[in-house]
Amino acid sequence: MGQYNRTIAEEFLFVGFSIEPRTNLCLFVIVLSMYLITLTGNTLIIIAIRIDPRLSTPMYFFLSNLSLLDICYTTSVVPQLLIHFLTSHKTISFNRCMAQLFISLSLGSIEFILLAAMAYDRYVAVCHPLHYKTMMNKMVCIQLALTSWMGGLFNAMVQTGFTMRLRFCTFNTINHFACEVLAVIKLSCSETFVNEISLMVAGVLLLLIPCIVVMLSYVYIIRAILHIRSSEGRHRAFSTCTSHLTVVTLCYGTAAFAYLSPKAPTSSNQNKMLAFFYAVVTPMLNPIIYSLRNKEVKGALSKVVRKCIPVES
Hints:
mainly alpha, Rhopdopsin 7-helix transmembrane proteins, 74% helix, globular
């Protein structure tokens, strides 16, 4: 048999969250509600940014990219999860599993880099306000966004390619609700050293380095804010950063617990819950965080809602 041959396991079985029908039905209703909120909130953010001239700035350009990522990422996972809540046979074919793994890896990696680009944008806005339009012109924004998308897609191609080279034998039950790379690799009956090294390198390049960029950006931002004399000026400068900082904490914090925590016997269940938070909860919270903390976004969203739901006089 060649090194690319797989034996027996042409499909995978998900453990999911529960085998109790009543619990699964409750989870179905909760997750469906969260999914609809995610789609609605992020779609409204994108529409508001497109139609409101006040939001034609780099910060909102990156925010619209983030909202698009959240819609795509949660859609790559949640519809399948909802179906599995209603059926006892939670299976996925090998090819579909690899496709889902590629999509989730690429979108997750893109988000890590994009959040670092957003931190750099806030650094320029606060620390170099007079040169902001020059340093963050349209071409620079497009290049940063393209770098995020290309970096994430390249990482997904590498990780998925290495995963497809593995052999999967009789044990084909994934202790997860989706084809997450760590959960899939654990099923392999062949050597996974290359996969583990590539994931470690990806963790440094796509998680650790962007996280350092974010932290350094905010060190300079906080130092610049403290030098602003008026309390109103300090509040205005800091208010432009709090939403992004909250989203960064949710995103990087969840990923760090999932991929950098010690491998304990309960780590599979822990990672499953962290993945659920990252794939379902965080995309729902992001538009809420930005709309609650940003007056311009709230104003634009209220304008969109009024157009969609006209009020009768």
